[in-house]
Amino acid sequence: MKTVYAFNPITRLYQGEVQLGEGDLSPLEPGVFLIPAGCVEVVPPSHDQSEFLEWGDGAWVVKKIPEPIQEPAEAPLTQEQLLARFTAAIQSRLDGLARSRHYDNILSACSYAASAVAKFKAEGQACVNLRDSTWAAAYAILEQVNSGQRPLPDDLADIEADLPALEWPQ
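-> structure tokens emitted (170 positions)
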């Protein structure tokens, strides 16, 4: 048995010990082991968890593991960004209702309020009513935010109970 020390042939990083056995003996030179590629007989130096070993120029080199790069913390959102997120969430909620009946968005659905087809007219008017009542509730929430009565919601789920239920006419 013979111990050799393996390294990755591309990165040159130490991979560990390899035990050679009788199958690794040279058929031409009795008692001589054939050392596999990517292995050396040089015993690696000791190192701690903050270091790694690299094979280069016939010797093991101890290197420090670099400190991870700290990503800069995200800046808190500005009031304008929070307001934009809030209004986009309200609009998305309304557009989602319209898409559930295959309209492009809430504006498209509202345009059917003047339709000659009773079903479309009823759905269009329902969308007009829901759009108006939803935005009225959203602006009331914003007035409470501006007067300091409540914080600007982080998520639509925080105010879902304050908004009208999105229901289609029967």
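The first helix runs from residue 79 to 99.
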